[in-house]
Amino acid sequence: MSTPSFGSDELAQFRRTFFEECTELLADLEERLGALAAYSSDVEGLNAIFRAVHSVKAGAGAFGYTVLVGFAHRFEALLDRLRDGKAELDERTLAALVAAADVFSALVDLARQGETPADDFGADVAEELSALLEGETQTTVPIRPTASAPEAPPVDRSYRIVFRPNAELFRHANEPLYLIRELKALGTLTIDCDLARLPAFEAFNVDDAYLGWTMTLRADCSPAAIAEVFEFVDDECELIIEEIADAQAEPEVVAPPPAAEAEATNSPSESKSYETKPADAKTAGKTGSISSIRVDLYRVDRLVNMVGELVIAQAMLAQQFIETRKQDDPGALQGFEHLAGLTRELQECVMAIRMQPVKSVFSRMPRLVRDVGHKTGKDVRLEMSGEQTEVDKTVIEELADPLTHMIRNAVDHGIEDADTRLAAGKPAGGVIRLSAQHAGSNILIHVEDDGAGLDRDRLLAKAIDKGIVPASAKLSAEEIDELIFSPGFSTAAAVTDVSGRGVGMDVVRRNVQALGGRVQVVSTPGKGTRFTLVIPLTLAVLDGMVVAVGWEKYILPLTSIVESFRPGRGQIRVVPGGGEVVSIRGEFVRLIHLARVFGVSEAVSDPCQGLVVLIELANGSKLGVVVDELIGQQQVVIKSLQDNYDPVSGISGATILGNGRVALIVDIEELTRLYDRSTRIAEATRLPVAANA
Amino acid sequence: MPRKILTVDDSRTMRDMVSYTLKGAGFEVLEAEDGVKALGVLANTRVDLIITDINMPNMDGVTLVKRVRAGGNHASTPILILTTESGDDRKASGKAAGATGWIVKPFAPDKLLSVVNKVCPA
Fold it and tell me: ipTM value of the model?
């Protein structure tokens, strides 16, 4: 029989799987621990945490991460005592579990990076675990890869072995024949079968054991090696292993009766079980556990890319189709529409492969709230909903930082301390709500606190102080709230240990914008603050409106478009100091000429000759974008400009149109800023985004 | 016809390692991630050996052993439990439930094969 050992390729693959699994297990552990902290003792939660630690430990043992194994061992021991009810889940224990989870996770990270932790790594936590485990003997023996049998002296020795199984041995599906074969592999074996207890045929009970064997083994092995053969059955049989002096060794006169081996198979049903051909072997694949498969992300990305190309090819075909007027042919049209439908469906299926619930990010938050609440001395409860909402894997990874920041802010700055809250007639404990939901092709994530709301006087004073807005500026309440997204703006009066380390909400906004999303804030004094992240479900495709400006084509994100119209002469007003607005249903909306932003010549410059596309920005304000004409709406495959060229402000990406030309996707949030720069009227505007320029 | 082994473990890493080793030695391997799923597989497929972890969600290994031994197609099929060195009491409870033997985690591939060979030679 071949005995493969793991090659380096396989080992690397197993290790990858192991760390992927660790990531999932640790996320689950965090979540369960958070729940445990929030709802106190729950046995299922403890079991799950135990399993997570246990699974990591088993894998870590296989790869020789001894420090991780040692730590896991203590962690597991405490969890085990908790779930057996031998220890109590009090504040101290909970704190120790939380700290242990941190160390544990750090050890996994070190292992992942191939680094060996320092000897005293996490020693304080380990000691605390030991202290909680007091009364138990601490055996943190690093686990060796395999416990091998003691080496035997290289001299042949003789043993007499008496082996008489009882019925239990058969019930546990052990097989004397296999054990005897194992013995045979050790050396020269002579076997004598004892049939004395075999009853008369009519008294024969198939479930009972009647046979026994007396064997002589001549081999260069220790008694321990022989005992090891019987390790599974030593309490299910009579077993004598004794060394006999060589002189007394029986000569090999007793040939093993051929019946001995055959009869070793005591239970007839037993022997049959191995020979029965599974009648339904073919169904194995169907009923096996294969409800999911693991696929390298690279392959999925390639698939997504290929489908993207297919969508583009299909769009090009559509263009050809229209140009050559093939749509007049009903057969061709039907076929083409079918192809278009299938392409769209295929694209959706492929996108769905990359979708994952936001839970993996959300699950880190209860812990964060607990920690920050602890540090700031605030009692804060986190309520989460919509954890199962799915979004592209890439988006999920990018969500962690902004969310962490916002939640931390909410606890640190949003929620007031208990005295202030009580004085305001609120419960002493604050509540933060984190929720996710789908809205069209976007995911909405709300982070809402029931704190004091934004302090607008202080915000404005600070903005003026920092020169972000001119002292004379008159801003609306919403515009003041928007100031927290200004670069270099920190809302905390004092830099605290928890937040306010110079990373502000501007970074959050930038991160979110990099995802093609937007973040908005709504604050009610005394009631609290709500941040909303609107993020596209996927970074791979976009529902866009193709517009023409001069000879160029641009894409505007469809989700931001409210309507488009050709204004009448009377709707356009020129604002003193420069700039135009369009009046629509009694509201004045600022106009921006796309041609001027991007320096396109030969474009329509009179809005009344072209079209105005009304766009709603992340902060809720509206903007009229002047273009020559609308070409049509289209789902476009986003190609990163950054990866293929360089980042360009005002452009979030590019795509390839049906005619094979490249069209740029407009970053509408950047538009006002760019427009102000290009027309140099920054000081004349009241728009908050412009204030950042 | 190669011998068919069902490996039951909630850890993908362990399933992968067990599977890889056994397949390399010519066994056919089925996988299940907990006791409930394992029973589902066993209801439809005859296997020659079951290798199960103890700590699993939904149904743990000891319960799985009891359920398999309680009757049906696999009442006398060998079952190996995966335990850690620290799990002596679990080893005992697995054995009491009717397990045939055990494999101590972590294991080297040849160790796994030698234990398998003891209860279900290829």
Answer: 0.85
